[in-house]
């Protein structure tokens, strides 16, 4: 183990790595409750999604640990799963497709294969660098707002309104009250640096929900899990395993390309940004500030995405929560292997994770949205007007149009047009021209129906 992971060289021990791996798992285990809830709203089998989420996370994290030797864990990414369920599925459903989630899985499979190719030829990092920084930060912050509004809607904190579009929900209902209490719990635990604060927030809110159900205050779907021995085996993968629908691509090619591109674009710089951030905190960058073995790390992420699509879950990506393990001293792939082992163990706790109601996951969604919103602090609101407006448009269009893809689309289109109008056409990278052309065609198809 010492020879394989080079523990002494990285100034760590087996005990430190194991503790770090468990810490990382606690920081990101909320995905086991949140992801099935989100994707099930897109029509997928909740139990199968849980199993797919756990297995794909374990698989991708093992690859990261063994081949890249980094303390980075992977799982179905927040934001990308919301785009899957609340943007792609409704769009495809409107076109009369049965089981639209199968089309979304097909798009993720294609995205993953493209990423594998880009990673093998070392194009991926270069592509990330072609996207303006302000646009990156605006998209990240916009995804944070989008995730937050999804969570608030799920608990009924905000509701639709014919006059004002949105309005405050029933503040006396159990779901609304408990979701707000859960957010406060996470905030207090985060302040006191409690490990797994987000997960604990979900679990405590859930327990309070069970008490509310017993008392008669909460009358929604049952929150009490069935812990009979026969129910402790992981739910079957059959409903989602290799469930791809490529027929949509043949009849609606442009729409399919747009979906693939949106998945690609978000995952593109999200992964690199996470890897750089985790490596920087763990002092794993070289003297030039670059990430050693970056090719292996990116390839691990891409293979994880393909595996996740085959199993039946949204895009698998590197989790920034890996920094929790790094803060505990994790420096090698042994940390990642420990986290992967925890995901495998979690497979046998499915009744617990699947019984967690949406109002209990709302605090997690809102808090993760808060963490992603921090990117707005890096945005520049003066200087190049294309960067300023492009980033801002991307940020506001995601929550207000309820679509991550729309935010990316309008952000890029506005950025390119302003660059041209301000005489800075030479600043536009070929990748941005390609993105502009794709989105322009998409808008044209929307206009002409």
From TrEMBL:
Q: How does it sit in the membrane?
A: Multi-pass membrane protein
Q: Subcellular localization, per the record?
A: Cell membrane
Q: Does the keyword Glycoprotein apply?
A: no
Q: Which domain of life is it from?
A: Bacteria
Query: Which family is annotated?
Result: Belongs to the nucleobase:cation symporter-2 (NCS2) (TC 2.A.40) family. Azg-like subfamily.
Q: What is the lineage of its organism?
A: Bacteria, Bacillati, Bacillota, Clostridia, Eubacteriales
Cite the PANTHER family for this sequence: XANTHINE/URACIL PERMEASE C887.17-RELATED, XANTHINE_URACIL PERMEASE C887.17-RELATED
**Gene Ontology MF annotations:** purine nucleobase transmembrane transporter activity
Please give the coiled-coil regions recorded for this protein: none
- Cellular component terms, GO, for this chain's entry? plasma membrane
Q: Show the stretches that span the lipid bilayer.
A: 12-33, 48-67, 72-89, 101-123, 135-159, 171-190, 197-218, 256-278, 340-373, 385-418, 430-448
Q: Which Pfam families match?
A: Xan_ur_permease (PF00860)
Q: What protein name does the entry list?
A: NCS2 family permease
* InterPro entries named among the record's database cross-references: Azg-like (IPR045018), Azg-like_bact_archaea (IPR026033), NCS2 (IPR006043)
Organism in which the protein naturally occurs: Hydrogeniiclostridium mannosilyticum
| Keywords, sorted A to Z | Cell membrane, Membrane, Transmembrane, Transmembrane helix, Transport
């Amino acid at each position: 183990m010492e020879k394989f992971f080079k523990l002494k060289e990285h100034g760590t021990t087996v005990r430190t790595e194991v503790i770090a791996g468990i810490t990382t798992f606690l920081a990101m285990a909320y995905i086991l409750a949140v992801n099935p809830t989100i994707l099930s709203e897109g029509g997928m089998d909740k139990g199968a999604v849980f199993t797919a989420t756990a297995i794909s996370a374990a698989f991708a994290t093992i690859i990261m640990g063994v081949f890249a030797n980094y303390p980075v864990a992977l799982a179905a990414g927040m934001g990308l799963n919301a785009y899957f369920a609340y943007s792609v599925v409704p769009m495809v459903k409107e076109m009369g497709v049965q089981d639209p989630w199968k089309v979304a899985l097909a798009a993720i499979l294609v995205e993953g294969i493209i990423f594998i190719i880009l990673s093998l030829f070392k194009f991926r990092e270069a592509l990330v660098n072609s996207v303006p920084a302000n646009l990156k930060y605006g998209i990240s912050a916009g995804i944070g707002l989008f995730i937050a509004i999804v969570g608030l809607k799920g608990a009924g904190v905000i509701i639709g309104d014919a006059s004002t579009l949105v309005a405050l929900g029933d503040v006396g209902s159990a779901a609304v009250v408990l979701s707000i209490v859960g957010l406060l719990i996470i905030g207090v635990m985060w302040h006191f640096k409690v490990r797994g604060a987000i997960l604990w927030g979900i679990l405590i809110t859930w327990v309070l929900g069970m008490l509310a159900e017993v008392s008669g205050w909460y009358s929604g779907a049952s929150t009490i899990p069935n812990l009979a021995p026969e129910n402790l085996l992981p739910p079957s993968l059959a409903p989602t395993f290799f469930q791809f629908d490529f027929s949509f691509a043949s009849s609606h090619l442009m729409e399919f390309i747009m979906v693939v591109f949106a998945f690609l674009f978000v995952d593109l710089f999200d992964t690199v940004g996470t890897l750089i951030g985790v490596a920087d905190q763990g002092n794993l960058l070289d003297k030039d500030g670059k990430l050693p073995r970056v090719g292996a790390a990116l390839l691990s992420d891409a293979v994880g995405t393909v595996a996740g699509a085959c199993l039946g879950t949204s895009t698998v990506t590197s989790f920034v929560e890996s920094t929790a393990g790094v803060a505990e001293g994790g420096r090698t792939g042994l940390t990642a292997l420990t986290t992967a082992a925890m995901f495998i163990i979690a497979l046998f706790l499915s009744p617990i994770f699947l019984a967690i109601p949406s109002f209990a996951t709302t605090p997690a969604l809102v808090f993760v949205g808060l963490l992603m919103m921090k990117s707005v602090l890096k945005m520049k609101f003066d200087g190049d007007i294309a960067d300023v407006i492009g980033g801002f448009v991307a940020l506001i269009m995601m929550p207000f149009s309820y679509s991550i893809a729309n935010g990316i689309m309008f952000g890029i289109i506005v950025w390119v047009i302003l660059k041209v109008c301000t005489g800075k056409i030479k600043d536009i990278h070929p990748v941005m021209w390609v993105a502009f052309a794709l989105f322009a065609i998409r808008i044209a198809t929307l206009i002409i129906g």
